[in-house]
């Protein structure tokens, strides 16, 4: 399986928690950026010829903030350069405040079939505090335009003074909009973001409070028919994100655009986070990559375990042994005894017990070899 990630680094305004490569003041560079993006798509197809894509994910930034002709152009370029399998999952991220009927029409015309909507919360006062440009009403207008399509919504937990009841009402709003997938993320205040000041000043919820809300969310979504398949992701009727699933099981993917990361032939590499540096590299036929690492040996083994144990399915020990020509039970005998109370072994599958999935880090880190 091969995925393609396309980064669109433009947005109307920066959210207080955002530390992604997004540039609200660079909207004048959209056309030039996409010209470079098209060139990189072509170049990557030549670097990795005769490969067939199973998923395409257009993220940002806010892809829906730019004229839809550029998004359509990117998909057309991908179709020119790569073979795309029948029924491929093609996702675009949407900010509810930037969608219109023409954009929906253009997206559908090039085969986009999944829409990831940044709701974050269903409360307008919280949205304003996060510097979001949309309202709860905008979300419902957005989902109405996408009625009948496969939709996902993002919801944040850990906001200032947030309660479980508020999160449940945000979930209700998303379900009312017709989503079949929900991503519920614990807010991470990154250094350099405006919300980091709130964290330093003790205004955000503490870890125990967030964990309590998370447990309530898991139970509530189960009541609503949403199955948790990864620590932060829930779906209804099997509508999981195939693109993200590929990440968690160390599938290969190509990333194009500013800050985009790739994993190909056991090599992880990342493009420049600076828009001008990225564009100059493409224009002068140079690589936009700023880092590159071959993942092998113990690092590859740990990745296999770390990523797979994020999911409710867990890891296949047989696959681990075959992939690395190893003996999992022998290598991790002591850890399996020490951490056994947190784990479930069924056949060749090993997974974290549901009640410990949210606090997985300590469990997973124990598998890291010094």
Q: Any key phrases for this structure?
A:
alpha/beta, three-stranded antiparallel β-sheet, TIM Barrel, 370 residues, Arc Repressor Mutant, subunit A, 2 domains
Descriptive account of the structure:
With 370 residues, this protein is of the alpha/beta class. It has two domains: 2-247, Aldolase class I (TIM Barrel, Alpha-Beta Barrel), CATH 3.20.20.70; 297-365, Arc Repressor Mutant, subunit A. 39% of the residues lie in helices and 23% in strands. The chain has helices spanning 30-47, 68-81, 101-109, 124-129, 136-145, 164-176, 194-200, 207-223, 242-248, 275-283, 297-308, 317-324, 328-331, 333-338, 361-365, and strands spanning 2-8, 52-60, 83-94, 114-120, 150-157, 181-186, 227-230, 233-235, 252-256, 261-264, 267-271, 289-294, 315-316, 343-346, 349-352. Strands 7-8-6-5-4-3-2-1-9 form a nine-stranded mixed sheet, sandwiched between helices. It has a three-stranded antiparallel sheet with strand order 10-11-12, with no helix packed on it. A three-stranded antiparallel sheet has the order 13-15-14. Strand 2, helix 2 (68-81) and strand 3 form a beta-alpha-beta unit. Helix 2 (68-81) packs parallel to helix 3 (101-109). The chain is globular.
């Amino acid at each position: 399986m091969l995925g393609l990630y396309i980064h669109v680094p433009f947005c109307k305004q920066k959210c207080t928690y955002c530390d992604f490569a997004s540039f609200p003041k660079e909207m004048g560079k959209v056309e030039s950026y996409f010209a470079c993006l098209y060139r990189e798509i072509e170049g990557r197809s030549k670097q990795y010829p005769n490969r067939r894509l199973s998923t395409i994910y257009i993220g940002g930034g806010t892809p829906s903030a730019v004229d839809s002709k550029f998004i359509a152009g990117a998909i057309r370029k991908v179709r020119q350069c790569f073979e795309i399998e029948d029924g491929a999952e093609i996702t675009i991220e949407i900010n509810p405040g930037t969608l219109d009927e023409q954009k929906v029409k253009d997206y559908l015309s090039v085969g986009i079939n999944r829409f990831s909507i940044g709701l974050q919360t269903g409360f307008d006062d919280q949205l304003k505090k996060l510097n979001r440009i949309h309202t709860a009403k905008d979300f419902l207008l957005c989902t109405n335009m996408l009625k009948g399509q496969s939709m996902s919504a993002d919801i944040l937990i850990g906001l200032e003074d947030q309660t479980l009841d508020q999160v449940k009402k945000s979930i209700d709003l998303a379900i009312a909009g017709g989503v079949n997938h929900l991503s519920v993320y614990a807010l991470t205040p990154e250094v350099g973001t405006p919300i980091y000041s709130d964290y330093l000043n003790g205004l955000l919820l503490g870890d125990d409070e967030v964990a309590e809300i998370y447990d309530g969310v898991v139970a509530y979504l189960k009541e609503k028919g949403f199955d948790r398949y990864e620590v932060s992701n829930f779906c209804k009727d099997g509508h999981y994100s195939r693109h993200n699933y590929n990440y968690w099981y160390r599938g290969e993917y190509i990333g194009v655009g500013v800050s985009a990361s790739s994993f190909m032939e056991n090599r992880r590499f990342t493009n420049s986070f600076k828009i001008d540096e990225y564009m100059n590299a493409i224009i002068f036929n140079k690589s936009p990559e700023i880092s590159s690492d071959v993942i092998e040996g113990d690092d590859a083994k740990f990745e296999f375990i770390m990523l797979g144990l994020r999911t409710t399915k867990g890891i296949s020990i047989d696959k681990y042994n075959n992939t690395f020509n190893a003996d999992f039970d022998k290598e991790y005998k002591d850890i399996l005894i020490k951490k056994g109370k947190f784990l479930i072994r069924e056949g060749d599958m090993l997974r974290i017990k549901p009640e410990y999935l949210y606090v997985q880090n300590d469990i997973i880190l124990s598998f890291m070899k010094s």
